[in-house]
Design goal:
single chain, about 110 residues, mainly alpha
Length: about 110
């Protein structure tokens, strides 16, 4: 048996059957969440709440894309750990950014002159 035939047989065992319906439902959910984001922007919830709601909806949409479209939901534990660690680092960076912004006494604008 040649090396290419052996490799093709080996990779054929690990293929998953992907149904269309979860992808269609995910796409519809993304459309609804996008419309909800637009609706929240029109409501004018106030200074911190509009941004927080928009970020929460964006995180939910990113989670749907990662879990369903990128097939992380069906993947091995190592892939799930890698995907979660990416989310963790982004959350950590946003937390430190938020902590920096709220700890400032005054707002200053940057001027290169």
């Amino acid at each position: 048996m040649s090396e290419q035939a052996h490799t093709a047989d080996h990779h054929g065992d690990h293929e998953h059957e992907h149904r269309l319906m979860p992808h269609v439902l995910n796409l519809l959910a993304l459309f609804v969440l996008t419309a909800l984001t637009y609706g929240v922007a029109l409501i004018h919830l106030g200074e911190p709440w509009a941004d927080l709601v928009a970020l929460a909806i964006a995180m939910l949409k990113a989670s749907l894309v990662i879990l369903i479209f990128m097939h992380v939901k069906e993947s091995s534990g190592l892939v799930k750990v890698a995907a979660f660690s990416g989310f963790f680092w982004v959350f950590l960076f946003f937390f430190y950014l938020w902590a920096d912004v709220v700890s400032r006494d005054t707002w200053t604008t940057f001027s290169p002159f």
